[in-house]
């Protein structure tokens, strides 16, 4: 044997030991592979994937560092905004406490002032509505009858001395009655009043021989998308209104009376007085008994005669004759429309006061008091005067004796009615009406501006 193939016994032992250790290592490696479940193919796949990854460039490291810095800045800004929000919430809580203190101081005073001016029959309704909204401080004084003894015409709280009205009492929810509500004027008038947000209850009254039963009118109006509750009331010709209209009139704030017979061609307003005065008297006497504090708006021709007669009737009963109001609003409505036609202006921007009375030459439009009407040539004024004065007769003739001005009269009556209710609700309003007056010496009754 060559010298380099000769091993010492010690070398042979070392080789044997190394072979054994290598065998042990292989066994341990096999065991580890079986535990992790990784095959050679999987290991190869992982190596290929790792090799495919591109190494990071220095610019990538710079962008990553910049992004980390931006995140840190946004986190700091968010922390700052959170602190500001906490401060604002603290301020809001302080303001809420202060507002509650102011509310506690002002609402009782409000309730006292309002209760002195509201009528008894709707103080309780207001208190109920306010209490339903959670305003117990405002509701409690309104319940007291002692605060609700004053009539509806009287002192209103000075707007400048009180803060804005709470929303809970911003509307009146008044009780309104339309006597003659099934007629040509009464039906559209009832419709227009039912659409007024200040009206909570509407009574429609008429005779049993009316073409449309008042109950049918009420049923029809109750389908409107309004909170108003409408009821119909009927009586026979033989019955007296004062005996049967208690439920209809009791608690009313406003009574509109489009009752009586209409004019026919060739018939004057004076011809109607004997008939229509009796009809008006029956209604007014019933109002004196069941709703003496209500405003009674008469749409009964001849207004110039019927209103003074009914006002004197009220005076004899110890009631306020100024509660009796003659509806002459249609004269002003016509004057506004005719001026608009001449000038091209929008009628809603025109307000011509009409004074005097409600018949023929007693109807006196004061065109000079409106800035648009004042531009009309003086030579055209006499014809315009006559156009307004004869407008009612023109409608009667145009209908060939089958009616008078019904739709426009309903519009005008609703305009006056809405103005009255707005005034009751605390909004000062002005309309021309035929009332007991001292504005013109020698004319105890006169159409002039009446402020509610």
TrEMBL record:
Which Gene Ontology CC terms are recorded?
A: cytoplasm; intracellular organelle lumen
Transmembrane spans? none
Q: Which GO terms describe its molecular function?
A: L-malate dehydrogenase (NAD+) activity
Where does the record place the Lactate/malate dehydrogenase N-terminal domain?
176-326
Q: Name one GO biological process term.
A: tricarboxylic acid cycle
Report domain Lactate/malate dehydrogenase C-terminal positions. Answer: 328-448
Task: Tell me its EC number(s), please.
Answer: 1.1.1.37
Q: Does the keyword Transmembrane apply?
A: no
Fetch the InterPro entries from UniProt: Lactate/malate_DH_C, Lactate/malate_DH_N, Lactate_DH/Glyco_Ohase_4_C, Malate_DH_AS, Malate_DH_type1, NAD(P)-bd_dom_sf
- Indicate the segments annotated as coiled coil, or none if absent: 8-35, 64-105
User: What are the UniProt keywords, alphabetically?
Assistant: Coiled coil, NAD, Oxidoreductase, Tricarboxylic acid cycle
Q: How does it assemble?
A: Homodimer.
Please name the PANTHER family in this protein's record: MALATE AND LACTATE DEHYDROGENASE, MALATE DEHYDROGENASE, MITOCHONDRIAL
Q: Which NCBIfam families match?
A: MDH_euk_gproteo (TIGR01772)
Task: Name the family.
Answer: Belongs to the LDH/MDH superfamily. MDH type 1 family.
What name does this protein carry?
malate dehydrogenase
Species this chain originates from: Symbiodinium natans
């Amino acid at each position: 044997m060559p010298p380099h193939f000769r091993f010492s016994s010690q070398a042979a032992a070392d080789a044997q030991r190394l072979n054994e250790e290598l065998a042990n290592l292989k066994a341990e490696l096999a065991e580890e592979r079986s535990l992790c479940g990784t095959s050679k193919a999987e290991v190869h796949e992982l190596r290929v994937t790792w090799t495919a990854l591109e190494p990071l460039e220095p610019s990538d490291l710079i962008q990553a560092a910049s992004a980390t810095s931006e995140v840190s800045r946004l986190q700091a800004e968010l922390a700052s905004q959170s602190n500001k929000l906490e401060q604002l919430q603290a301020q809001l809580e302080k303001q809420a406490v202060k507002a509650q203190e102011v509310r506690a101081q002002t609402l009782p005073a409000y309730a006292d002032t309002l209760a002195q001016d509201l009528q008894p029959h709707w103080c309780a309704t207001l208190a109920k509505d306010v209490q339903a909204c959670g305003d117990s401080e405002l509701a409690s004084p309104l319940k007291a009858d002692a605060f609700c003894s004053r009539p509806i015409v009287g002192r209103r709280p000075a707007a400048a001395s009180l803060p804005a009205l709470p929303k809970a009492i911003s509307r009146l929810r008044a009780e309104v009655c339309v006597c003659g509500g099934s007629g040509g004027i009464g039906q559209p008038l009832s419709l227009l009043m039912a659409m007024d947000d200040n009206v909570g209850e509407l009574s429609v009254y008429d005779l049993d021989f009316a073409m449309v039963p008042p109950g049918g009118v009420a049923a029809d109006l109750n389908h409107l998308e309004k909170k108003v509750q409408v009821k119909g009331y009927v009586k026979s010709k033989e019955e007296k209104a004062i005996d049967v209209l208690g439920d209809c009139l009791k608690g009313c704030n406003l009574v509109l009376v489009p009752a009586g017979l209409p004019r026919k061609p060739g018939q004057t307003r004076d011809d109607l007085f004997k008939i229509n005065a009796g009809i008006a008297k029956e209604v007014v006497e019933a109002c004196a008994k069941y709703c003496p504090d209500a405003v009674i708006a008469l749409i009964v021709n001849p207004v110039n005669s019927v209103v003074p007669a009914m006002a004197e009737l009220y005076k004899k009963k110890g009631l306020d004759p100024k509660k009796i109001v003659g509806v002459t609003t249609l004269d002003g409505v016509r004057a506004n429309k005719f001026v608009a036609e001449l000038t091209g202006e929008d009628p809603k921007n025109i307000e011509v006061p009409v004074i005097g009375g409600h018949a023929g030459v007693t109807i006196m439009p004061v065109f000079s008091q409106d800035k648009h009407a004042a531009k009309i040539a003086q030579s055209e004024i006499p014809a315009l005067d006559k156009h307004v004065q004869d407008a009612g007769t023109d409608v009667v003739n145009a209908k060939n004796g089958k009616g008078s001005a019904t739709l426009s009269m309903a519009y005008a009556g609703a305009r006056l009615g809405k103005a009255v209710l707005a005034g009751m609700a605390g909004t000062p309003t002005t309309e021309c009406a035929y009332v007991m007056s001292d504005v013109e010496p020698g004319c105890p009754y006169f159409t002039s501006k009446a402020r509610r």
